[in-house]
Amino acid sequence: MALTQEQLLRFSLNDVEIIGKSRKYQGFFALDEYQFRHKLYAGGFSKVLTREVFERGDAVALLPYDPVTDRIVLIEQFRPGALRSDTGPWQLELIAGMFSENESPLDVAIREAKEEANLDIAPENVTKVMNYLSSSGGMSESIHLYCASVDSKNVSGVYGLAEEGEDILVHVISRQDAEKLLEQGKISNAATIIALQWLALNLDKYKKS
After folding, report:
1. Which of 54, 113, 136, 185 has a CA that sits 20 to 30 A from residue 143's CA?
2. Quick check: helix, strand or coil at residue 68?
3. What angle do CA 9, 140, 19 make, to 5 degrees?
4. What is the pTM of this model?
5. Sorting pLDDT into bands at 50, 70 and 90, what band is 209?
6. Under DSSP, is residue 209 helix (H, G, I), strand (E, B) or coil?
7. What interhelical angle do 175-183 and 190-208 show, nearest 10?
8. DSSP 8-state secondary structure symbol assigned to residue 159
9. By the 8 A CB rule, do 39 and 173 touch?
């Protein structure tokens, strides 16, 4: 017998008691310390727990896809969080960025497409894929993931904002080649993996939309 949503997710924010919160570090990103307790599946409450949470704000990621040529726009840039990874710090990934004040996720997607790949994208050509938590065991970040129909002709170059230390190389590759890179483990960041898998699952529906 299938489980209901209430059986799968029986607790909510109302079942957590935040006892204390303090900022332990503030730089380009921040680190907050929480003291809390929460309801237990067997009944009652947990002991008071102390956990650090990495606070970097929410972000938007965008997969530009050309349905006419079946090609994808990816960017390549240096990522310090990948310095100890096997693939190295230069990553193939989606266009992505953080929120500025009073921006909607769609605003961010369109702005970052221009800044990072010189793409002009109309709002009506953008499809929402999903929101997901990138690493909820210790990070608060939520990713707003989108796919956009684009014309990939003449898309190339190096972009990014010098004042933010960005050095971004734009690639246009076939969808099949992107999937091969994924299979070979050469694409290793979560947003790009999720977006490419979503496109593979929704390709026929997406091309008809």
Report:
1. 185
2. coil
3. 75
4. 0.90
5. low
6. coil
7. 150
8. E
9. no
Which superfamily does 59-208 belong to?
A: Nucleoside Triphosphate Pyrophosphohydrolase (3.90.79.10)
The torsion of the CA quartet 105, 110, 113, 119, rounded to 10 degrees, works out to: 160
Domain chopping of the chain, boundaries? 10-55, 59-208
CA atoms of 96 and 61, how far apart (whole Å): 4
Residue 33 exposed, middle or buried by CB count within 10 Å (0-12, 13-18, 19+): middle
Which residues on adjacent β-strands are paired with residue 174?
71
Q: Strands, DSSP E only, in 13-164? A: 16-26, 30-38, 49-55, 59-66, 71-78, 90-93, 95-98, 126-133, 142-149, 157-159
* Residue owning tokens 């109302």: 14
Active site residue 141: no
Share of the chain above pLDDT 70, in %: 97
Token pair of 170 as six digits: 């734009």
Selected catalytic residue, list 101, 124, 163, 164 = 164
